Amino acid sequence: KKNYRIAVLPGDGIGPEIMQEAVKVLTLVGEKTGVTFTCEEARIGGIAIDTDGTPLPEETLKLAKESDAVLLGAVGGPKWDQNPGHLRPETGLLGIRKGLGLFANIRPANMHSSLVDASTLKPEVVSGVDLIVVRELTGGIYFGEKKRYDGPNGEVAEDQCIYNEQEIERIIRVSFDIARKRQKRVVSVDKANVLESSRLWRKVAERVAADYPDVELTHQLVDSCAMQLVRDPKQFDVIVTENMFGDILSDQAAMLTGSIGMLSSASLAAGSFGLFEPVHGSAPDIAGKGIANPLATILSVAMMLRLSLEMDEAADAVEKAVWAVLEAGHRTGDIAADRSKAIGTLEMGQLVRDEL
Amino acid sequence: KKNYRIAVLPGDGIGPEIMQEAVKVLTLVGEKTGVTFTCEEARIGGIAIDTDGTPLPEETLKLAKESDAVLLGAVGGPKWDQNPGHLRPETGLLGIRKGLGLFANIRPANMHSSLVDASTLKPEVVSGVDLIVVRELTGGIYFGEKKRYDGPNGEVAEDQCIYNEQEIERIIRVSFDIARKRQKRVVSVDKANVLESSRLWRKVAERVAADYPDVELTHQLVDSCAMQLVRDPKQFDVIVTENMFGDILSDQAAMLTGSIGMLSSASLAAGSFGLFEPVHGSAPDIAGKGIANPLATILSVAMMLRLSLEMDEAADAVEKAVWAVLEAGHRTGDIAADRSKAIGTLEMGQLVRDEL
Ligand SMILES: CC(C)[C@H](C(=O)O)[C@@H](O)C(=O)O
Ligand SMILES: CC(C)[C@H](C(=O)O)[C@@H](O)C(=O)O
């Protein structure tokens, strides 16, 4: 295929600035490979609340569904923090995940060797960390029934955490498929000593593992995994876990590297369709200043090329360009040892394209 | 009062070894203060499963209820890992928490300056860390209704996370009372952008805060807190959170110090009654070898003296004795830089008593 439609959702805060650089990189990839990328923009998050009165306008979801892949910047900001639930930027995010069936969130936590010092952990503990958290993204306590009512001891609030076998099986399979191309080790994280959903999770993981005799499956309790990530993050290859645990552990794992301005993530549906975004947030405090790090968004483009568009070579080229720029010593403020030498968003984007 | 009844539950693995040293310290405290401690042993966990056919025999719960405080070693081991739920050691732990109404789990994560090197984090990041995680211990998803049934997509499992205002209010109050005696800063951790129970949590936290104008309350989302604990653990004074999040974050926080063989915890009921235990587990791999570190259990005795028995001076004395022994360079294997110089459980206990 020589023509792809890409839905581009810049979102809020630094979203538009970093997305601009990412789209420029994608355009250059198109020129060099002869592939046409038709990038169509739409609103999500706070900007959509302000303009359309909802964090996820119908036309945004429609555009995304008609596209081959989605690029997302970031959503949210203090302006909308006090809004009621249905008018909050995150609700747009949860809505698009569910609406597009993006059940598999792939969050690599790795680091370029030149950034080891950015970590709060000792170099010998983090250098060489290369793990992927595979998080279930459309089930569990995020999407279970919610209740609020009055009881004898004041108001009562309930959240239901619910999983069925099929939901668990498909995410476990994603993790095994990924592990196969890596070190072939999956750690399934649950709280099977307490939760019924975790006991079902573990049972399904065991069953699926039988189809992957070449991949090693072990189980870790979530509290223990949170400890092990601090004690020895290098022990992990692929971690697979449910939605809520994945939210916590993937953020913890990201921060171990000390440079979340560099990390990107993919959220995949069945088939090759996916949404790609940086791990960091909308950073409202530095929005509009031209100093945000565009590399995580540019690396999201690489993930998209590889995972949704079968353009592995182009993906490699983008990643290599990013590493080359880092090796040459260029840094945005968030990853700079010496902030006075930090470069801006546009300059960093240009350097990556020059390298490409 | 000059006579206290203490329920002593050594449990499994290294439990009996470390408990022995703790009880010797308590006895010595009694001799020096003229207070009589009547220590009565009972079974819990795996040993109770083997002997009584249940992880929490009625007589153990009865003894605990009739006591002024409970000292617990540790429960669990591979022998019972494949047992069905009601015959698992952890079930005894959950049962005694609920049975005694121990709703407030107090987990300090701090470290003696001489142990800074044990951490996987850089010394400048961890030295001086002194935080307390206050975890709600008898509610939430741990004790909500559980279901398992067949559906169109295979088996379905459900866990209900439920909180009422009263349950939230009392644990928030505990955290504010603790913060008052410290740096007066409470971070309440929830996932209010997704969970109904977290929205109620946050509302109650705000309401209770009005009664403590001298204490600062801020809110952090659980994923963000997991990041901040890695990025800058010194920012925290008191963290208060619900049961499941507290399980994860308190273990993560403990591991930041690098020496969980040194950390103890309290689980308190309304009033002064409490259960005190080391944070580490039953370590079946080193059980019976006489090399386990008894200091966390000895420090649990100090916590008990302070929090349940109003013996602050004696508590201080025990803690000082422990620090003095560490300063003199004595180490068990788990915290030794040079393992060949490590001392055993009995020797460590004796050194603390000599110091006392
Ligand atoms: C914004 C929030 C709803 C979201 C989540 O919890 O999934 C975010 O933390 C993430 O990890 O993408
Ligand atoms: C053993 C387990 C049920 C328990 C818990 O999750 O509460 C443990 O992890 C703890 O933190 O004391």
TrEMBL record, chains A, B:
Binding site for substrate: R97, R107, R135, D223
Site (Important for catalysis): Y142, K191
Binding site for Mg(2+): D223, D247, D251
Names of required cofactors: Mg(2+); Mn(2+)
GO cellular component entries: cytosol
EC class: oxidoreductase
Pathway recorded for this protein: Amino-acid biosynthesis; L-leucine biosynthesis; L-leucine from 3-methyl-2-oxobutanoate: step 3/4
Chief location category: cytoplasm
Subunit structure: Homodimer.
Family the entry assigns: Belongs to the isocitrate and isopropylmalate dehydrogenases family. LeuB type 1 subfamily.
Protein purpose: Catalyzes the oxidation of 3-carboxy-2-hydroxy-4-methylpentanoate (3-isopropylmalate) to 3-carboxy-4-methyl-2-oxopentanoate. The product decarboxylates to 4-methyl-2 oxopentanoate.
Name this polypeptide is given: 3-isopropylmalate dehydrogenase
